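Subject: Peroxidase

B.,
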Amino acid sequence: MIKFCYLAIFLILVHHLVAVQSINAAAPKKGVSRNPADFLSLGYYLKKCPEAESIIQQKVGAWIQKDFTLAASIIRLHFHDCAVRGCDASILLNYRGSERAAYVSSSLRGFQMIDDIKETLEKKCPRTVSCADILTAAARDATVFAGGPFWEVPFGRKDGRISIAKEAEMVPQGNENVTALIQLFKAKGLDILDLVTLSGAHTIGRSTCGPFLNRLYNYNGTRKPDPSLNTYYLKLLKKRCRHSTDLVYLDVITPRTFDTVFYTNLKRKAGLLTTDQDLYSDPRTAPFVEAMASQPFLFENQFLVSMTKLGNVQVLTRNEGEVRVNCNYINAR
Ligand SMILES: *[C@@H]1O[C@H](CO)[C@@H](O)[C@H](O)[C@H]1NC(C)=O
Ligand SMILES: *[C@@H]1O[C@H](CO)[C@@H](O)[C@H](O)[C@H]1NC(C)=O
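Prediction pasted inline below.
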């Protein structure tokens, strides 16, 4: 509770700061092309729907209280949204052939929470708060409820009208090499530090066993386990993974705490996904893993920076998209 009082004070301060900033930003120099995210603003719903943020926060809290695992799910859903066509709620569209209908999206969760928030907001402020903004704010609130840092989310994202199943495969599936991961992130304007930092969200996530079963029994066609897997951890995983659909925590030590143990696990060869473990063996990413493992404060601060960057990826603003009435479908025209 005290934490939220501080947040409220912080919010007020930030809103003042931003009011000053947006006056300056309102007069762009001629000929200077603007980043789409420049059209987002912290005060976007201040007049349009002043309760938007508190409604989202309250709903996210209620859902996570009922089911803690939803915190990680909603952060993941936001990532899957932003990784394809930017943060435009394309992942929420629910029909044959949409990203959400793709096989690789079948383990995504949290849609009901977003629908619940949207329904409430439509009653309060019809056709005002976009699904992309709801999902972005919900990912932030989920982080806070899980014990992670708070950050201000600028608003004004519009919802896209395109969602293509095939494109869902652009999201890392857990078997990419570090070069591929770095390239994927780079294409979204995210750097190596963002990659290592956002992977840290796995401090509270889970995975089905399917994506890493090969590491337990037949690594790279050797018919042996992955040698880069801690032997105690290997034993445990063999016990927990009876079926490829069984769920295990990505952070085996403190799965319900938003902390840096995920990174120390990598140093102990106890990363669940190869995409995580490889971050510690690759010289481009390893220094960042080392830094995060030893400095929780650094992780918290960088997490909010990287999440802010993620939430601004290829956003649609102004008339580039719409405010969906129902997050599952584009508006009838
Ligand atoms: C990494 O993956 C990319 C794309 O899948 C592939 O082209 C490349 O050869 C791989 N690099 C290494 C070092 O395995
Ligand atoms: C996987 O196996 C191939 C072929 O046997 C080998 O060239 C490659 O180095 C192995 N990769 C790893 C990461 O062990």
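The pocket of 2-acetamido-2-deoxy-beta-D-glucopyranose (ligand 2) is lined by residues 220 (CB under 6 Å).

T.
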